[in-house]
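Appendix B, example 12.
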Amino acid sequence: MADKSNKDLLGLIFLCSLLKGGHTYLNMFRSDGENINLPCNNDHTYCTSTSWGYRKESSEAVVLFEKGIKKNDIKRRERLSLGSDCSLNIYKVTTEDYGVYTCRQYENTDTDISVYLHILHVSPSSTQTEIRPGRSFTLSCQLYIHYGYPCYNFFIKEGIELVWVNKAGEDLQSDSRYQISSSPHHCISTLTTTLLHEDDNTEWTCQVTDGTKVETSVRYTVTYSVNSSENKSLGGWSVRVIITIAEIAALTAPTVILLRIICERRAGEI
């Protein structure tokens, strides 16, 4: 019971720290799969007075590090570590890692900092069974954000956008070949197009932009289904086999005729 009470108390401290003056707030945009570093306003060369907490949606605050020591009963434990400056390192972030992370220096609460971590993820439509020329293809780009920052604020008030570009960095919004739709209330943008033969190994990228600045991006490479490639290869192989057999027949025909003549002569002598 004592451990639970201490955990609840620490969670309450992190929650209350969000409401205090002198608190620093920071937005960070990252793509899934990245290794990231969340800053901490540490004035010391040691981390024994540093603690990190985490909260997502309406869940309770979770203490990740207490006075520089990593907690044993936390999820993602193997992917978390402290930097030499007491910053929080997260190895290969996923969409499950978005939320608000709070660093507290117990010797100087004026240096508390909360990092709102937002994760960008791109994936093809789950209804697509085969990717090949002539088929409709849809990519979904979603920004996972902490509930304290509604998408409406990001997209409308703060000018954050989800932008689709090609390999050359050209905006695809104005290209009639692509149908792009966005939902500011759900932080999602979708790109739909009909695939062409030349789209094999083509790259499309979804970017989070703030004006002209690209905050983060995710690149997706289109790769056609194996069956289509096998058919093309099989067709070429079949033609080559037919040609090779014809070449062999042409080369061996004179030899067969010569052997036949020799055999007939020997039979006549007998």
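The chain has a mean pLDDT of 78. The helical segments are 2-17, 151-157, 226-269.
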